[in-house]
Inverse folding.
């Protein structure tokens, strides 16, 4: 099982989710479960730029591992505000005369 976390490692919320997921799956599985965990830190990047590279890396990294299930967990980050154009005051506007 591959757990993909979009947030940074070791936050209390991530630790709680990770613990509950693992204990629930392990307690209900009739066979041993191997967990692989990746913390992707999506909040460090703007847009989708690193996603193709991350996908390629994960495909290479786990190519020889039997992955039966992938669980992806991410909390959307706060929307970024677009850059505000500089306000033009009446003192800096060109005159219309």
């Amino acid at each position: 099982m591959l757990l993909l976390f979009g947030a940074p490692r070791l936050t209390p919320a991530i630790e709680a989710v990770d613990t509950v997921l693992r204990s629930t799956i392990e307690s209900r599985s009739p066979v041993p479960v191997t967990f692989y965990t990746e913390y992707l830190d999506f909040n460090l990047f703007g847009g989708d730029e690193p996603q193709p590279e991350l996908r390629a890396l994960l495909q290479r990294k786990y190519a020889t591992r039997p992955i039966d299930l992938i669980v992806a967990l991410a909390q959307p980050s706060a929307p970024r505000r677009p850059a505000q154009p500089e306000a033009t005051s009446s003192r800096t506007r060109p005159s219309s005369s």
Summary: The radius of gyration is 22 Å. The mean pLDDT is 79. Helices lie at 12-28, 51-61.
